[in-house]
């Protein structure tokens, strides 16, 4: 029926048809009768209340009922006018009894003393469980258990207010049933209709339990539950609250198509694949599982997986799609990372230099194996995978690696060298853990270092021979140098004193070269015990000893140095001569202290940045034509290393070279 055409008279007719005479009705009952919306029926009922043709009352659980107020029936009045008073009374009583007996619902009447005055057959069946009759009995004496119940409070309220009431009530044993009770008061008593609603209550309770179970299920499902139509926009008829967590959109906005899933949520590049995959599945009446990307309300891209199936009616027509959409972004990221790791591992396995790499499971079987020895051994990776280590390896090698693999599976890391037969191997064993930190495999790496170790031994032997030769040479040179220096001093009184100075200088130079050679070849072993020295007095003394021409020495704060004085003097002499050689005869050299050392700088040409790493190498010189051997700065570097100092070459403020030595007061390393 068109809601706009429903009249108050239609509603009055529906009220009369919905139940017995003057029985309260609900808006839902009227709406069912008229085929309209409940709100329409409620509005018309309220209009009738305003007109005084109906009365209304709120009952339990917020429900409201309406009924027609008691007025004299026109047909009954006509009958009464034709009969004498006593006859009219008997006629009315008989008519009422016939009406009440025909009522399918249970009915009984109570007077103002709460005594039964009438009980129809259905009521006797339900509540006269003793079979002793109820008429004339006091209801509260028959039902003693109801003295403090809702039944009594509702009856008394109806009598006091003279307004009907509707409520649900549970009758205990022996009835053990729920009843809907309609009580209508009058000045002479209370008329009560009641019907068994146990089945309806059971259904309602079961429905509520199913709804609660469904609600809990949807709350715990790892994703968004949905129901949609099979259209390209995927219009959603229902989405669970998880929609907000998944997309940022409110569920009701998606259900009202304010947000269209197939247009606003699914990434454009994936829409066609989602449609085709779904259509293939529903055509075959198979479940579908489709992975695609969505874009959240904040613009974030996420990967999701939709698991669902088509819902078909009895005629085989597709009605809806139902399923769950889960966020798999983290899984996708892990899969990508895992594939990267697999790629890296494959690269490592296939290109591991001069050795082997293997992954072993907890059963001590090869998961994978690779590296250069694979090709040399004639055993392929496929043949080794799945094999026990003891079966795949020579016994001598298995005795070495199997215990280490077991230790790695217990969480132990190890690295060592071991000779197996004529070969020497360097081994590394590491536990491999999962995301929970549990060890599930062991990684083993081995490299053949036989040639490397042989070369190291040769180098060590060569160094030993070189050191022995240097020591022997130094020893052999020191004796004639010492004799020459003695005799040169005796010649100093001769007229040709300039020649004597050259001889003395030459011997001193040879002495310097001997010291340089020893430091270069023997390193830390060449230096003797340290003495605490003041830097500036030593620096001035060294400056006076060399030919400084027109050069100038300036000082900037003193410091103490822990070193052998002979070697400190050689270091300063080499730095001074380097400044004079590259800065010219009028160079200014400055010696000053640093928080943990000292510096020597000049105002000469400086050292280009790209040469500062090579100036300390033995043989490096820019003055080879002037007789430079390239040992001076190499001696500075080696002496600093022997003393565990730090040395850097920088640019001075004047643009020249600046050498900084730090850590010069530290104790000698052990």
Report what the structure shows:
This protein is 44% helix and 24% strand. By secondary structure, the chain is an alpha+beta fold. The chain has six domains: 3-67, Winged helix-like DNA-binding domain superfamily/Winged helix DNA-binding domain (Arc Repressor Mutant, subunit A); 72-102, no CATH class; 221-327, Beta-Lactamase, CATH 3.30.450; 351-446, 2-Layer Sandwich (Beta-Lactamase), CATH 3.30.450.20; 449-526, Helix Hairpins; 527-662, Histidine kinase-like ATPase, C-terminal domain (Heat Shock Protein 90), CATH 3.30.565. The strands form six sheets. A five-stranded antiparallel sheet has the order 4-3-7-6-5, with helices on both faces. It has a five-stranded antiparallel sheet with strand order 9-8-12-11-10, with helices on both faces. The protein has a five-stranded antiparallel sheet with strand order 14-13-17-16-15, sandwiched between helices. Helix 1 (8-18) packs across helix 2 (27-34) and helix 21 (535-545) packs across helix 22 (565-583). Its EC number is 2.7.13.3.
Short description:
GO terms for molecular function: phosphorelay sensor kinase activity. With 670 residues, the protein is an alpha+beta fold. Helices cover 44% and strands 24% of the residues.
Search tags:
single chain, 670 residues, alpha+beta, Arc Repressor Mutant, subunit A, Beta-Lactamase, 6 domains, five-stranded antiparallel beta sheet, 23 helices, 24 strands, 44% helix, His_kinase_dom, phosphoprotein, histidine kinase, phosphorelay sensor kinase activity, Sensor_kinase/Photoreceptor
